[in-house]
Write a structure and sequence with these properties.
Strand order of the largest sheet: 1-2-7-6-5-4-3
InterPro entries: N1-like, Ribonuclease/ribotoxin
Pfam families: Ribonuclease (PF00545)
CATH class of one domain: Alpha Beta
CATH architecture of one domain: Roll
Shape: globular
Radius of gyration: 18 Å
Helix content: 10-25%
Protein name: Guanine-specific ribonuclease N1 and T1
Largest sheet: 7 strands, mixed
CATH superfamily of one domain: Microbial ribonucleases
Keywords: Hydrolase, Nuclease, Signal
CATH topology of one domain: Nuclear Transport Factor 2, Chain: A
Strand content: 15-25%
Organism: Streptomyces roseus
Number of helices: 2
Distance between the termini: 40 Å
Amino acid sequence: MIFRDVPRSLLRRVAEALLLCVALAGVAGCGGQNAAPSAPASASVPGSAVPGTSVPGSSVPGSSVAPPAWAKGMATVRADALPVQARDVLALIDKGGPYAYRQDGTVFGNFEKVLPQQKRGYYHEFTVRTPGERDRGARRIVTGEGGEFYYTDDHYETFKAVLR
């Protein structure tokens, strides 16, 4: 395969960008003068590659609720669209534990600077078990002191704001 040495996360981002371009081209319309008016750019993308997710700045699919201010400009995912293991971790966070890994609940440093900059100690991370992985895997939920929840499945390279 010609992409053998390319990181999977980069290939995933390119594929997501291509899908987004195709979806936006469909929303913008390809017809002539008699074509129906196109949807606003902030509308959710029908047929999204991942059910329950939306593109940055869009409303939550399946509802008319706009994302909270802390999620503005980020990709979002409804909590009920997360993998079952992530939903289980959300329930544990709500209960205050107990957690499966000693690192759960520890400070997340945000060294990648993907999440909004905050003072050290603002964010905390929790492991989301990945079936088939022998270690902690790449999936995490990161919480913020302001009630924010973020989900990553690529070990902090990208995040989606979790809408609960």
